[in-house]
Predict the 3D structure of the following.
Amino acid sequence: MSQLDSAVKQLRSLSLTAAASQLATLVAKAEANEISYLGFVQSLAEHELLQRNVNRIQRHFKQAQFPSEKRLDQFDYRHQTTVTKRQISGLLDFSFIDERQNLIFIGPPGVGKTHLAIGIGHEAIQAGYKVLFKSALALVEELELAEMKGELKKRLTQLSKYDVLIIDELGYLPMSRQSRYNLFQLINSLYEYRSIILTTNKDFTSWGEFFHDDNVAVPIIDRVIHHSHVFMLGGESYRLKQKVNKT
């Protein structure tokens, strides 16, 4: 076994797989440019860290479970005049995550609520945060199943490991009493501990309608809007407008 092969094997045994895979190239570059020993070690470490960061971001994107690719640079602010690019860009220092604040997008279907939520989640992952996307329906069903198995507390703990939980389309369907209770347990467990990005088609005065219980709606609203940024989106459905323009 050559010295190079031996070094590659040793790097792999230390789980420095990125450095191992590029060792021959990095050695040749160091020799050609007469790089110092310290400079070579630094280049080796930089390559390993860079690849680990790339792998981490890819892993976090997969874990986020985004239903589609929605980027903020694709959002049409000309169509949605009730929120500005400056307002959204102002969120991208992610102080709202560090300060455990929530983002709430309220508006009718098709005005860009989900697009903004996914786009911000996308940028948050790039910045090093862990994000999970769930439709409200899927989340409620998931919590109900966990409760039936006696594993609700366990699932709540798993969800709280994400820096940001995106709950999409809350309010489109009525909820059972147990579902309301489970959702409250989730919101309560995340309160002032993790950030929520919430999209809904109903303003807070109408939440009692789909919860069918103001005694549940009020404490959920209280915890969601405390320390939150609320954006009211208006206008006609962007999807409908696109469809009409194509006909």
Notes: The radius of gyration is 23 Å. The longest strand covers residues 164-170. Strands lie at 102-106, 131-135, 164-170, 195-200, 228-232.
